[in-house]
Design a protein that fits this description.
7 helices, 2 strands, mainly alpha
Length: 199
């Protein structure tokens, strides 16, 4: 009879050891969870600080007073220039015919612009010339070539106050960054100072 009691005693000790091991594992998990929670909290705090700093910088750029001059030029990007012989011949012929008729302003004298018009009319040069004339008439009628110099945006400061947005520098690749602070817009107030009417 002693033997079974000794075995029972040993099995209870093994059960206690297993409980102790489980307790150790729980404590380690708890410590890791607390550490992980603290680490996440510090990350969120850091991100929150970065977001507030960026927001403050953006707000500061929107609040600058005085006449704003916008530079809409984008940094140049090198693109491989691949031209096909047939297309190039058609573009040269169109260019020469436009020059003969005095329909090629220097601003529109661009290989790819001419190619785009030719493509739109299936390389039919007569139809392309008609389309080109219509385009020049439209540009003259609406003043598109001088709109950046002629347009006066008198309510710009008020518009930016009720609809904060704008370009804010460029990214690492040189692409412009556009930010809209949609949570701070007041479209009903915006309609009092301006309208959607283009005139």
């Amino acid at each position: 009879m002693l033997l079974p009691a000794a075995v029972a005693f040993d099995s209870s000790r093994e059960g206690q050891e297993e409980l102790d091991i489980c307790d150790d594992i729980r404590e380690k998990k708890s410590d890791f969870c607390n550490f992980d929670h603290e680490r996440r909290g510090s990350k969120i705090g850091t991100l929150k600080k970065k977001a507030l700093t960026a927001s403050n910088k953006f707000t500061h750029t929107l609040k600058r007073r005085g006449k704003r001059e916008f530079d809409y030029r984008v940094p140049s990007v090198s693109i491989e220039d691949i031209r096909h012989a047939e297309e190039e011949g058609a573009v040269l012929e169109l260019r020469q015919r436009l020059l003969d008729r005095d329909l090629l302003p220097p601003r529109q004298d661009d290989y790819y612009t001419l190619l785009r018009f030719l493509t739109a009319r299936d390389f039919d040069i007569d139809k392309t010339i008609w389309m080109w004339k219509e385009m020049l008439t439209w540009r003259k009628e609406y003043g598109t070539d001088t709109i950046l110099q002629d347009f006066e945006f008198e309510e710009l400061e008020e518009v930016l106050h009720y609809y904060p947005q704008g370009y804010h520098g460029v990214d690492k690749e040189g692409r412009p960054i556009y930010i809209e602070r949609l949570g701070n817009d007041h479209l009903s107030k915006l309609m009092y100072i301006t309208s959607i009417d283009p005139t």
